[in-house]
Amino acid sequence: xxxxxxxxxxxxxxxxxxxxxxxxxxxxxxxxxxxxxxxxxxxxxxxxxxxxxxxxxxxxxxxxxxxxxxxxxxxxxxxxxxxxxxxxxxxxxxxxxxxxxxxxxxxxxxxxxxxxxxxxxxxxxxxxxxxxxxxxxxxxxxxxxxxxxxxxxxxxxxxxxxxxxxxxxxxxxxxxxxxxxxxxxxxxxxxxxxxxxxxxxxxxxxxxxxxxxxxxxxxxxxxxxxxxxxxxxxxxxxxxxxxxxxxxxxxxxxxxxxxxxxxxxxxxxxxxxxxxxxxxxxxxxxxxxxxxxxxxxxxxxxxxxxxxxxxxxxxxxxxxxxxxxxxxxxxxxxxxxxxxxxxxxxxxxxxxxxxxxxxxxxxxxxxxxxxxxxxxxxxxxxxxxxxxxxxxxxxxxxxxxxxxxxxxxxxxxxxxxxxxxxxxxxxxxxxxxxxxxxxxxxxxxxxxxxxxxxxxxxxxxxxxxxxxxxxxxxxxxxxxxxxxxxxxxxxxxxxxxxxxxxxxxxxxxxxxxxxxxxxxxxxxxxxxxxxxxxxxxxxxxxxxxxxxxxxxxxxxxxxxxxxxxxxxxxx
Length: 571
Fold this sequence. Notes:
The protein is 47% helix and 5% strand. By secondary structure, the protein is mainly alpha-helical.
């Protein structure tokens, strides 16, 4: 009862308050009401004026639009560093935007001295920690990177690295075009290497330890006359793949295609002399180079060559029981060629008469992808989880990166064709299984390993500090003689120059690593190793998707001939 009275009291008080305070009429004088009205009018006019002025200024002043920020996730950050390694490996007159402060102009007399083999062979890349320029591994590195740009151009673009990576490729292809008569239809020789290794105490690129900028010893030019079909086919692949990257620059792309055809013809002419051999090691390059020429030209003759059973057999396509079957690298292109042609079957389907061999390549690719998964026993793993593609004590990290790239790329091919996975025997595996494998291997390389050490220099908190690299180990502008530089090679001090993005060579079977400059099997970076690193990182990184159709820009739509009719029935 008391509560009800309290509520009633509060209600009555509230009503009196409204009448007395809120609803009470104003008692302002007319003069004060007039002044108040003027103030309100003036205030309103002021606000309107400010709004109008703001609108006018907004139209006249330049707009500061918010720029989209490039992806910052770990794979993309590592990619940016990995590409910088190629800047550090350039030879010749460096561009102004090279951005490696401790590098300068080097080896400008290549090809001219000590013998005038060619007007100018400066430029190109040093392929490792010395100053040798070897066209075979370098060609593979350029082909691999071109492949990644063709497939993942949008990712490079969103990372702000598309022009950079195109410059990396063009630095290589410009040099390749200077190593043979690229404007000719036929050739009978080509440059294979500049510099030498292991000449037994004679000053050369192996014996001497000095900065490339200070080299003063003769650098021999090695020529191939009739025994390098593997090199000619690999260089053909490099030029053909790059022609797709630069397809919008029609003149340059056309020059690359012409050079690729000339080299492939030279390779075929040399291989005919060995046509009875099934044990030669260059047939995989013939398959690889022919596949890239098909994509670059759309010429079905190349497709017919690379889908012939004879070439596939010579290249080892049916030797899946071999211990190293499934290892993709600069010495074995088979798996890459099979995946490249599997792409054609999955996403274009040319049908008869190519379908039979393309199906074989597709099946073999699936078998290799199965072997990468942890519940299959073809390849062992270290305790830290690194796949052991090598049968030896050391595991080259470039092979691991290449496998991670192919697995990620294959998963993207399947996804682009709306295929959820593939079979390994009776078991079905999803695309996630492939990407999980790729990520686990690249995460290991980037530092998620028992040593908590990143094997990419400059990435992460801890990384190798005594990389086997002449330029990085000697202070900038410190000129040393051939033997004088040995004190830097043998020093246990950290490198004075950080070679950003360099992937070191290997770890051992027990996840061990020797950060010692003289242990080159562990600490030497290479061009092919970093190429594998770059392509795996971009395949796993965000900011874009697979370019499903770009590689088919020169390929005509298929109107395949009908298969031959069956034989007449006879009773």
